[in-house]
Amino acid sequence: MNKMILIALLFYGCSAIAQSGVKASDSLKKAGGQTAAAMKPLPDTSKLLNSEDDVKAQLILLALNNPAAEAADANVRIAEIARRKANSSFLSTVNLGGNVNEFVVNNSPAASFFPKYNFGLTVPLDLFAKNKAEKMTTTETITINRLQKQLIGEALKSKVLIQYEVYKERKQLLELQRIVLDDDLAAYEKAQKDYKDDVITIEDVNKVYRELIASRGNLASKEKDLNIAVIEIEETIGVPLNTVLIKRQQ
């Protein structure tokens, strides 16, 4: 009887352990699923650049190839050449000389009364101080030229971005003025029709006509402003602006 009770208890314990193992496995699967969901790769935002940002980046890149920037690069290179020259300039101030006793060469009996060889070395007293000062000067010149290069680069960057904003504003104003001109043209055509139908007087037609002329003048002014903005940008970047805008559309 005791053996039967013991076997029943063992069977119950095994089944309980098996059930707990299944539950643990299910919980691990759920946890694993949540972990996998939490570890999903984030979308690559490096390729989500706005086309407007692409245009600005291209304008800045072109502006930094401006002749002013290239001249700043050249000044830095010249200063670096001057420093390399200063590192070896002390050699030009050291004089080394020597000669051979002519009596020794001619096997003269008087050769024993004179030294066989004569050597001389001339070193200026201010050699090292002068060379150190020259090196310091060229090093500071490099620093100045590099800072000037940085300032020129920042100035060109700001300049081209401001010019681009001016260009966008003038382009938008031109488009708005064309809408105004279309409305004024439609109003003038309607005024002519109303005049023929004796709805309005000739003074009313002339008033609408003057507004149409003013709109055309404003359109010409806006076109000029836009053209100037384009010329200013192209002067900075060195290439036609359309080449940059076409890349944006592509």
Describe this protein's structure.
With 250 residues, the protein is mainly α. The chain has 7 helices and 2 strands; from the N terminus they run αααβαβααα. It has a two-stranded antiparallel ribbon.
In a few lines, what is going on in this structure?
α2 (51-63) crosses α5 (127-196) and α3 (67-87) packs antiparallel against α5.
SS summary, helix count: 7
Low-pLDDT runs of 5+ residues are: 1-49
Number of strands: 2
Distance between the termini: 90 Å
Give short descriptive properties of this protein:
two-stranded antiparallel ribbon; 250 residues; mainly alpha; disordered N terminus
Layout: helices, strands, pairs:
Layout: H1 2-38, H2 51-63, H3 67-87, E1 95-100, H4 102-105, E2 117-122, H5 127-196, H6 202-237, H7 241-249
Antiparallel strand pairs: 1-2
